[in-house]
Amino acid sequence: MEPSGKEYYSFEEWLAWGEGVRAELYEGALIMMAPPTQRHQGMLSELHGQLWQFLKGKPCKVFPAPFGVRLSDDEDTVFEPDIVVVCDKSKLDGKVCNGAPDFVVEIVSPSTERLDRIYKYRKYQQAGVREYWVLDPKLNLLQAGVLMDGAYITTVYDAEDKAPVSVLEGCVIDLADVFSEE
Known about the structure:
Helices cover 24% and strands 30% of the residues. It is α+β, with helices and mostly antiparallel strands. A six-stranded mixed sheet has the order 3-5-7-8-9-10, sandwiched between helices. A two-stranded antiparallel sheet has the order 1-2. Strands 4-6 form a two-stranded parallel ribbon.
């Protein structure tokens, strides 16, 4: 089953599309996802690898895209962030993360920049995602937001920095490797 051109879709319809459809829902509105670039996938692979190595044998789990996140069960919004870290296994149902993950990473592209920087930022903040990173491959910058008193406090890092993952004590990401174009 695939999207049919309607104006509003439910979470249940999104689930029924299966793995062959790359799409997100924002308050019922369909957002089709373009195939990622080689650079995007290289950054995703490196970041996922560093996080996976750090979390190996620990209770938190890291999931690369595509992996659905449904922040609230009373809303038809489902995102597929590039990276998701979940420490509360009760939020995992074998299909999606139900509720706020602990850590979310989005790698922006020209087609997703507004969605990632504005709409997802607001939704993640409201839902209580404890840390939200936005990586910009064009500028080789990371905006790392840590939730404090209901709002993100943001720090900007460049490709020469090592960025701490605040919600994963002791985890530091080498951004030179993440932004490397090799």
